[in-house]
Each structure stands twice: as C-alpha cells, then as structure tokens.
C-alpha cells in the first residue's frame, strides 16, 4: 500500500509540472507575454499619460525589470517628469488574465492596493496609451500584432541546447527501469532457469502494488460520491439564485452599499438619458450614453442597441462606440468606473458622486478608438437613487418566472394526481394524495435528521434506525 502511494505521488508530480506562467491559452491560440517584453529592460518606456503631461510610464511583459531604487522587480512604473522620481505600480506576480469575446485583459497589482489594468488589442500596428484613473488605479491600452493569440513566437536571446530538469528526470527514470528489467530477466533466466511470466522480476510485488492502487482508487471514488452530490446540490442552488438574483446593472461597492446603474439610464428604447454630451477634444462630434439599457438612434448611422454613440456635428450621423454586454465595473474610493472594451474601441465612463440636483456630463475623445465620459450625479452615490420600472413596462423578472413555473408544475402534479387516483383507482380521503407514503417518509426522515442534529449540538446520543431508508 505504501509503495503504491509513493508511485502514485511520483506520477502525479510528473504530470502536474506548471506550464510557463507567461503563456495563456485562448480559443484563438496561445498568447505569450514574453513577446511583449525584454529580459533586461522595459519594452515600453517613457509612455506619456493621455490626460496628464507631467507623468509617464514604463511597462514590460512577463519579465521583471529594475531602473531605480523605487522601481525594482517591476512590471510597470510611473515617473514624475518634474521631479524625475519613479514609483512601482505593478509586479509580474499574481497576474489575473481574462479573455472575453476577443478582448484580452490583464490585471496587475503592486502587492498592495495599487491596480493596473492592461488591455491588449490585436492590431497590425503598434500603439500604447496610458491613463491615470486615480492615484492607485491605472489603465494601459496596448495595440500590437503580438496581442493576437498565436501570431508572435518568443525567441530566447541565447537559445540553450541543454535539457530541462523534467527531461533529465524522465530519462534517468527510464534508464533505471530498463536496467532493472534487463538485469532481472537475465538473472531469472540464466541463473534460476525461469520461464514465461515467471521471468517478470518481483511479479508478486507488482501485483500487490496494482491491487493496492485499485483499492486507493476505489476509496477515492467512495469519498468523491458524497462530494459530487454536495456539488450538484450547491450547483442547483446557485442556478436558482442566479435566476432570482437582482439585475447585473447593480454593483456592490462595499459596506453593504450598492450602485444601481439603471438609475442612470432610460429603458424601453426611449433613447439615451445623456445625449449631446459636449466633446472637449477638437473632434467635431458629440457623445451620448445610457446606463444599463440599450438604445438606438434613427439618424442614418449604425447606432443600434448601443450603450454609447458618437454623433458627427457635420453629418448628424451616429456611430456606436460601446455595447451594454461589454461593460466591466471598477470601484474606487472617490470614483466608480465603467469600462466598455471591444476589439477596436475603448470607452471609460467615470461616475462621481455629487449632491447637486442637476447632473453634469462631459466627454473627451483621445483618438478614433478611445473615449471618456465624466458623469457627476446624485445617482452616482451608492444607495442614493432607487430604480423603479417604467409604468409601461410589462416585463417579468427571472425570479418571478421561476416561481410561476414551479407553482404551475406543483399545481398540475397535485390536481392531476388526485384526479388520476380518484377515477382510475377509486381512491378516497388521504389516499387521493399522490405519492402520499413517499412524502410522509421524507417528512419523517427530515424530522429525524433535525432531531439528530440538535442532539449532536447538545452533545447527546441519539439512536435512529436508518436501515428502512
């Protein structure tokens, strides 16, 4: 038994060797962060902030780098161009990689409360944009061919001809096994004159190991069955909770408070709540945005089922720049952020709490693909505004639909069962209850289980005969 456990442990260790933590598998291929970095220095250096002209950034994919005392073993640093001081904002450890509908996002931290979100966009041209959201939150937008999964292959600076540790271990192990088998077979054949299966060295030992291994596997299966049942139970409860849960537009911001984005939008296709948002960039266009609910514009453009659109002041036509299905929420101390990311568009909506009775909205377009909208409103304050559906809305929530279906099924089961038992089997009284004995036994078992649990808590013995179950 001990020998088989050791053998299983060796096999598991061989096959659980970690892959390169800079390579991520996606439906479109492998993305290798090493192609976005250098080994001894940052690949992206002195990148200016799009909004602030007094700071710049450096970033390197996969490999940690160091420049000055305060920027050591870094994935990214920010430098104050006035004082020339650098600050570490991200480390290579504990990256969080996500891939959603072709959009790649990687979240870094500095090991504390500073967060860096890097969006990788598949492009044939190179581009790097950096944004400072708050003092402890930054956003990088990298366009590169190496951001396309499977497009770039990392070539080490000095290719090594040496074998890896895993390969050496396997070669040594195979050599030991081969030597053991050959010497043992020759010894048994030439010295002890054995034949057939008796030539297998230590045959009884290997049979015992096989038997013990099967016993271990059976034990694991027996242990796994109740865990599987528990998993199915919690999965069922999770499905019910998901169906009956509140809107995906309601976000938890901590301390039991919630921010309801539905209060920042109009539903039922009424149009955007915030329209004709002024654009502070030289681009001749205005912006529009609607919280939570999609809207469309009938001006000849492609602004259909949108979360935000850009409208040209020259042609009057609108172009969609964000969809409601592409939003990600981030909570910060003084501002909440909605990030809408597609393959070729980036919109950041900054939500700032304000006590003013009137909302203030401004917009900015950094380039053809990057937009920002700044909303100051009382409804940007957690729990200040509460959503109430429009009077014309006739939609039913998922939880209500689930309860209606459940009650309908129970009603059909009870009424149909009573009618069947009465007219087919001539049942009367309590015998008309469908599956009466089953429900009675389930109730008794539940009561027994409850009594048993109470006795356990009170440290008393309690005997129940479960053989009848």
UniProtKB/TrEMBL annotation:
Membrane topology per the record?
Single-pass type I membrane protein; Single-pass membrane protein
Keywords recorded for this protein, A-Z: Autophagy, Cytoplasmic vesicle, Disulfide bond, Glycoprotein, Golgi apparatus, Membrane, Mitochondrion, Protein transport, Signal, Transmembrane, Transmembrane helix, Transport
Taxonomic superkingdom: Eukaryota
Residue stretches spanning the membrane: 166-188, 216-240, 400-421
Q: Which GO terms describe its biological process?
A: autophagy; protein transport
GO CC, alphabetical:
cytoplasmic vesicle membrane; Golgi membrane; mitochondrial membrane; phagophore assembly site membrane; trans-Golgi network
Protein name as catalogued: Autophagy-related protein 27
Sorted alphabetically, which InterPro entries does this protein's record hold? Answer: Autophagy-rel_prot_27, Man-6-P_rcpt, Man6P_isomerase_rcpt-bd_dom_sf, MRH_dom
In which broad location class does this protein mainly occur, judging by the first location in its UniProt entry? membrane
